Amino acid sequence: MNKIKLIIRGGFDGQTPVTQAPTFRLVEGWNEAELTAPAGILPAGLWGQVPAGDPYVLHASVLTVAPIAPQTFIEVQTGEPTHVRARYTPSADNMRLTLVRPSDKIRVFTPPQGLVKLELLVESIGGVNELGSRLYEWSDGLSRSRDTGVRTLRIEADLTLPGWLGTMHVIYDSANPGNVTLPPRVIVPLDAVLTVTRRGPGIPTLHAAAGDSFAGGVIAQMIQRSGIIMNNGEQWTWVAD
Questions:
Q1: Is it the case that residue 112 has pLDDT exceeding 80?
Q2: Same-domain check for residues 114 and 6
Q3: Which of 203, 231, 237, 232 has its CA nearest to residue 218?
Q4: What is the pLDDT of residue 23?
Q5: CB atoms within 10 A of CB 143
Q6: Does residue 113 fall inside a structural domain?
Q7: Which of 17, 157, 164, 206 is the most buried (most CB within 10 A)?
Q8: Residues 110 and 189 occupy one common structural domain
Q9: Domain limits at 20?
Q10: What's the rounded Cα separation, in Å, for the pair 45 and 56?
Q11: What domain of life does the native source organism fall in (predicted)?
Q12: What is the mean pLDDT of the chain?
């Protein structure tokens, strides 16, 4: 993340482009620079302070000595032709995150006053270890954690199944009838799949947990040969052969 603080005396006028890069120095973890008035339109690249060519997510806040005036605003404009993509009051307590593209401009206006500080928190979307790659790594890690492969469980007596991820095959192999009880439906993901197969002469009966049911309001299903069970978000979906 890039932390940028721009200081200006007199305030931002909302109309004068800042074409000359200011001189930055590191102050308490912020890349800080003082702009020369008049100033009001900043380039999206922020004079090389953000990764070149990458879009980024921006959080902005304006700090003033007096209470922030309601006329104060920050505006993200597209490149030519110019259109406003976002406009809001960047008070210190705002939680607004805005997508900024390399061709954009950032327009800032504050009523005239002695000293104004503009704090910009920039998180690049592209690049190694930036927001985009971290989101991909998080998504990939989540996918891998849920991809548990295929498991097979062989049983010979009554059993209450635990919650499961991925695909689980249950084989009931007994000479006696038995009961297989499903876990509470709310703990089973919508993409999880369960198959229950009868192998021996004993017929198993599949039961929904208290408060749950199969489609049609049925709370138990006898397995003559095999069945496929999934959570559809409201009930157990049941297909048997």
A1: yes
A2: yes
A3: 237
A4: 94
A5: 9
A6: yes
A7: 206
A8: no
A9: 2-126
A10: 10
A11: Bacteria
A12: 88
